[in-house]
Amino acid sequence: MTSANRRGLLIILSSPSGAGKSTLAKRLRAWDDSIVFSVSATTRTPRPGEVNGVDYHFVSQEEFKAIVRDGGMLEHAHVFGNFYGSPKAVVQDAIESGQDVLFDVDWQGAQQIRNSALGPHTLSIFLLPPSIIELRRRLESRGQDSAETIARRMQKSWDEISHWDGYDFVLVNDDLDATEERLKTIVSATRLRRLQQPELTDHVRNLQSEFDEIS
Ligand code: ADP
Ligand code: 5GP
Fold first, then answer.
1. Whether the Cβ atoms of residue 48 and residue 78 lie closer than 8 Å to each other
2. What 3-state DSSP class applies to 3?
3. Does the Cβ of 17 fall within 6 Å of ligand 1?
4. Is 92 near ligand 1, meaning CB less than 6 Å away?
5. What does the pLDDT read at residue 23?
6. Structural domain of residue 82, as residue ranges?
7. What is the band of 144 on the pLDDT scale with cuts at 50, 70, 90?
8. What is the pTM of this model?
């Protein structure tokens, strides 16, 4: 099936901070570069190495509020003291042209996307860490946040984990390669969902005409 004759998916990846969302999002896009990454807008300051317009659109609180006021966000939330939101613009065009859009959002964002008009086209996946000790080790090994920020993210991690059962799929991200394979399997299968294949209706109609002709 080519991307031209299917409808794209809104692929939502959530997890407590440090469980591996960004790493797996990168791997998924390396596997299929037609997947569009939804670049969120945020009021938080960039981490070392983060590029404006690539990792996030870094905006002021005033700019963020103006986008929300103008109805430009598909969803938005307050996380760790900052605002985060997914701009609407790229999503509709991408999915109608058969491209999947990947969202790295928290449980509040996932819930809002699922409840939006595009809800039937979502695929939501939650990543769990193998243990809390390992989650902290990963946050520390990333080397991008202060001890204070890491402590705050650890404190919030249970809040995020407690929403695990609202997702279509839940993966324990223990071995990275194995999680990547399971993620690709889930995406490949969900692309075949009936709703993602609008041309099936015509195909079945053609089968019916052919059936009527020969019977
Ligand atoms: P998130 O985007 O969920 O905050 P990251 O993708 O930044 O998390 O991952 C946090 C850290 O953990 C990174 O240094 C990353 O390389 C590492 N990591 C991710 N998945 C695994 C894994 N399965 N095993 C070991 N380390 C991992
Ligand atoms: P970070 O600051 O580590 O990049 O992200 C912190 C948290 O905000 C993560 O749980 C991430 O999934 C979430 N997040 C990032 N972008 C968005 C967004 O656009 N909307 C929502 N709701 N959450 C987001």
1. no
2. helix
3. yes
4. no
5. 95
6. 3-214
7. confident
8. 0.93
In the chain, the number of structural domains is 1
Q: Is the Cβ atom of 122 under 6 angstroms away from ligand 1?
A: no
Question: Which of 13, 17, 22, 23 gets mutated to test ligand 1 (max ligand atoms within 8 A of its CB)?
Answer: 23
Contact by Cβ (8 Å): 11, 103: yes
Which of the 8 DSSP states describes residue 6? S
Chain position carrying tokens 């015509």:
202
Token pair 């209706």: residue? 201
Three-class secondary structure of residue 47 per DSSP: coil
83 phi and psi, to 5 degrees?
-95, 140
CB half-sphere exposure, 104, CA atoms < 13 A: 21
| Alpha-carbon span 108 to 4, nearest angstrom | 31
Please, what is the Cα angle at 89 between 83 and 93, to 5 degrees?
145
Tens of pLDDT along 39-93?
Answer: 999 999 998 889 999 999 999 999 999 999 999 999 999 988 899 999 998 898 8
What is the C-alpha to C-alpha distance for residues 106 and 130, in angstroms, rounded to an integer? Answer: 19
The CATH number that applies at residue 60 is 3.40.50.300
Output the average pLDDT for the chain.
94
Note whether 170 and 128 are within 8 A (CB).
Answer: yes
Using the mean position of ligand 1's atoms as its centre, give its distance from the Cα of residue 89 in Å: 29
Query: Which three-class secondary structure state does DSSP give residue 72?
Result: coil
Q: Is 20 in the pocket of ligand 1 (CB under 6 A)?
A: yes
